[in-house]
Amino acid sequence: MPSADLLPGTLDLLILKAVSLGPEHGYGVLLRIEQITAGSLLVEQGALYPALYRLERQGLLDAEWGTSDNNRKAKFYSLTSAGRKHLKAETERWEASAGAVNAALRAKEA
Amino acid sequence: MVRLFRKIQWWLQRRRKADELREELEFHLAEEASERQSAGLPLNEARWAARRDLGNVTLLREEVRRLWSWAPFDQLTQDVRYAVRGFKNAPGFTLVVVVMLALGIGANAAIFSLLNQALLRKLPVPAPEQLVNLSSPGPRSGRSSTSSTFNVDAVFSYPLYRDIERTQTAFTGVATHRDFVAHVAYRDRASTETGLLVSGSYFPVLSLQPALGRLLSAEDDGTVSVHRVVVVSHTFWRDHLDANPAVISDTLVVNGQAMSIVGVTPEQFLGTTIELRPAIFVPVTMAALMMPGLRNPHVDGQPWNGFEDRRDHWLYLFARLKPGMSHEAAEQAVNVPFSTIIREVDLPAQRPLSETARERFRNRRLMLEPGQQGQRPERAELSGVFRLLFCISGIVLLISCANIVGLLLARSASRRRDVTIRLSLGAARRRLISQMLTESFLLAVLGNVAGFIAAGWTLRGLASLVPAQVRSIFRFELDATILTFGLTLSVVVSLLFGLYPAFATTRRNLATALKTAGTGSRSSVRFRTSLVAAQVALSMALLVVAGLFTKSLLNLSRIELGMRVDNVTTFRLSPELNGYGGEQSRRFFEQVEEALAALPGVTSVTTSTIPVLAGVGGGSNVTVEGFTAGPDTNTSASSSAVGPGYFRTFGIPIVAGREFTGSDNAAAPRVAVVNEAFARKFNLVGSTSGKRMFLGAGRRPFDIEIVGLVKDARYSQLKDDPPPLFLLPYRQREGIGVLNFYVQSSLSPTALLPLIRSAIGPLDPTVPIENFGSMESQSRSTVALDRLVSTLTFGFAGLATLLAAIGLYGLLAYSVVQRTPELGLRIALGASVVRIGGMICGQVGRIVAIGGVLGSGAALVLGRLAESQLFEVSGFDLRVMVAAAAGIVLIALTAAMIPAGRAARVDPMVALRCE
Predict the structure, then answer these.
(1) 3-class state of residue B709 by DSSP
(2) At how many degrees (to 10) do helices A45-57 and B43-54 cross?
(3) What's the rounded Cα separation, in Å, for the pair B776 and B568?
(4) Is ipTM over 0.90?
């Protein structure tokens, strides 16, 4: 399966998207991203945690300690209302620019 | 804002966040490992693979940590931790520094507290800077009545006040007030308080809001003697009315008049005159009922009519400038109508004045003075005292700082190797300096905390030193202003003593510093030597000032009073405030005199209208037979109306003639006794008896015969020379409703009080005994301020000298340690013990000589500053100077003794091995 490197700036967006589907711990976020991208995007594990902490400090994520499926103590992240707004805005921005880039790339010689 | 908040929050939680991350990563690894294990990998390999996938964990941690670390904060905590560790390692050093700072800061905070209250504090009202006090210098005729030490230019007649109020356009309002003695009774509780007569505009001009009920307004002063309303002070409400909110519209009996309580003033508000703390506020138009003792000042036997009388000046005025109105513009604006009133209404109402006086009267102007601190007496004296004390306590603090600089330098010498190594390893000098300053600041904060405790003690000590009147003016408590002052001071102080050592220690030539670490550099020793010399100079100056004040105090205690006040107990009775008429009061006084004289153990009893040696006085112009006065001759003399046995009770020698007796009464011919100063002033020397006089000026019959001449005795204040004085029998004066009593007895005042009560009780138990105490303490209270200043300067000078001695000792002890190798070498080469001791003493001698000379110079300056507070001592007094110098030398020698002894005992072998 071909897998692509992440474009800069998209990790935050993917994390927010993953968490928006329901509270999840760090490892779960990783799995969920792999799942929703069908394994086509490669997330570097070492970059995940700094990004999670950065989003938490920006107030986009909330963190709470809970118990995982296999009964281990884990830190669960959820989206704050600021995070939800941010995700929506960023998604629109992404779609607009991705649409533009796609259109540009599809352009044929006149 | 939110971001900064979160930054601080994360910084505060940094330890928890780090733990969180660790746990989270552990969880991640465990999950990943079990995932791989279930995919078929053995446990070990699964774990390893998980680690590998996660990548460089240390790098990850570092990256996340950046989110909550904050360089300045981290550095600060590091510095603080380092400093605290340093203090723990040197508890002696820390203790000495903190104690020295505590003494310095404590003294300053205490003195500043008083200075602030006496000179700086503004009235607790909105926009106090808009308030102005009114005065009008110039001639005036009739009666001018002021409170204690107020200036006559500041009192106005009631009609003139109303004229100003009606015509002015520059103020939002003009207020007037005057104090009176109030016997206040609520239900069965009675007390004697200060009352204040105020215009209805008083509270509106101040813009005050009541704590309860309402304050007075313009509707409360419209008609004479009808507005029976009273506002009570918060203090009175708390102490005498149990802070009960239900007292509103209850009845308060003030000087026999039933008044309705309408409100309570705000807690912070203590009145508008620094020396008066009124308990009740009454409309000014109630004056005649509140002060039943008032008599017509111009015509004997006529009732007081101060509400129409333009020659009776008794009211203080202040006003609030309209917003945006400047002082100058307001002064211009109010003087236009004022001049018209003065020329057209007030001048014609005055008694015929001489042409020059008329001219000066016509030119009288209304002066505006800043009123933000309220109405205050001319107190150059008080402010001088506080400025001087503030100077002195400041010097004490400087000396403390100098000592601490010395200690820090000595300490940094032992740390120099450490500092040098850190510098050579590339530590930034800025970091080292900031670290040392943190240390200084922490010391200052510790000193500050201890200083507040010391300030509390100092204030309590001061409170016990000052006389009761002063005690009631000041609050001897720490407050927010003082705390702010103390904190500011500790920042300044920590820079003062921290900067030099921090820079000096880190500014080093690395190579030489590494080589000579352990012995101090010459420049730092020189710096410390000059510091100690400066300390010696300052304490020399303080010792001189302390000496001057001691001498002044001795002079005060040796004053020839010209009378005996020991064994005399005094008190005051004011039956007029119980509604007694003039005749009734006199009968009461005579009965009290008799009853007191009959008491066992009482040897003599007398009375006077003006309290003896209580700092107050009274008098009038007199015309004496045979003495021709020019138009502008001052013919005033002090006076008092007294009872029989006055001169006997006070032991004032009679030079010629006789003492007053009980038969010098209203039915007998009017008589007077004068003192020698009076005789000198009115050319009566040698021919006093039989001369006649009258009160006032002009052409009237000589109705008083001078029947006696007495020696001069002090009258109002201990410090003032006896003034020209004439005494009249009070029985021949009309309308005396307040009288001071003097009881001579070998019994103490405490033992006498129940006896006196038992004598007065049967006559009228409802007349309270006021101002009870011994004559000795009453006379001493007029010099209480002098005693206070002397005690304080003496204490501070002692403290300063002690601190300087500690500094000198520290320097010498340090320099002996430093010179141990050199001294050892000298001893090994045959220098005698005496010679080594002499070397150390020589070092001391130089410091003391330089410090002494500089200190004498400083003492001259301080002495000049103190001169106005000194009694019969000039600012330069050779004997005091010599004594102070001797004191300094003695103390320096004592401080030098131990280090000198140690130097002489240096073991050459040990010393040489050190090298």
Answers:
(1) strand
(2) 60
(3) 8
(4) no
Q: How far is CA A15 from CA B3, B241, B660, B871, B896, in A?
A: 21, 70, 109, 87, 76
Q: Are B385 and B785 in contact (CB under 8 A)?
A: yes
B232-285 tens-digit pLDDT: 999 999 989 999 999 999 999 998 899 999 999 998 898 888 777 899 999 999
CA atoms within 13 A on the CB side of B582: 15
3-state helix/strand/coil string of B714-741: CCCCCCCCCCCEEEEEHHHCCCCCCEEE
The CA distance from B611 to B702, in Å, is 28
How many whole angstroms separate alpha carbon A49 and alpha carbon A27?
Answer: 9
Closest by CA to B743, choosing from B649, B831, B654, is B649
The pLDDT value given to residue B473: 65
Tell me the C-alpha distance between B568 and B604, whole Å: 9
B32 interaction partners in chain A (CB closer than 8 Å)? 27
Interface of B with A (CB under 8 A): 2, 6, 10, 17, 20-21, 23-25, 27-28, 30-32, 34, 53-57, 59-60, 63-64, 67-68
- Chain B residues closer than 8 Å to A72 by CB: 27, 30-31
Contact between B198 and B175 (Cβ < 8 Å): yes
Q: Determine the Cα–Cα distance for residues B403 and B407; give it in Å rounded to an integer.
A: 6
Helices of type H across B598-746: 646-649, 676-681
Q: What is the dihedral of CA B159, B161, B167, B168, to 10 degrees?
A: 170
Cβ pair A4, B6 in contact under 8 A: no
Whole-prediction pTM value? 0.66
Interface contact B53-A75, CB threshold 8 A: no
Instruction: Measure in Å the smallest separation between the Cα of A62 and chain B Cα atoms.
Output: 13
Chain A residues touching residue B24 (CB < 8 angstroms): 25-26, 49, 74-75
Work out the angle between the directed axes of helices B429-465 and B91-115 (0-180°, nearest 10). Answer: 50
* Count helices and strands in chain A by DSSP H and E runs: 4, 5
pLDDT (0 to 100) of residue B514:
52
Q: Do B25 and A49 touch (CB under 8 A)?
A: yes
Contact at 8 Å (CB) between B158 and B173?
no
Which residues face B620 on adjacent strands?
B637
Quote the CA–CA distance of B7 and B11 in Å, as a whole number.
6
Both tokens assigned to B36: 């791989």
Whether residue B24 and residue A59 make contact (CB cut-off 8 A), yes or no, is: no
Contact yes or no for B259/B282 (Cβ under 8 A): yes
Half-sphere exposure in the Cβ direction for B485 (13 Å, CA): 20
Q: Where are the alpha helices (DSSP H) in B363-428?
A: 380-424
Sign, CA dihedral B399-B402-B403-B404, equals: positive
Q: Classify B836 as helix, strand or coil.
A: helix
Round to whole Å and give the CA distance between B718 and B557.
9
pLDDT < 70 positions in chain B: 1-2, 71, 148-151, 300, 352, 376-382, 466-473, 507-524, 631-632, 911-915
CA distance A77 to chain B (A): 12
Burial of B58 (0-12, 13-18, 19+ CB in 10 A): exposed
Q: Which two tokens stand for residue A56?
A: 């938490």
Tokens of B861: 């300056």
CA distances B284 to B232, B316, B651, Å, are: 15, 11, 43
d(CA B233, CA B272): 12
Distance CA B732, CA B664 (A): 7
pLDDT tens digits, one per residue of B786-796: 777 788 888 88
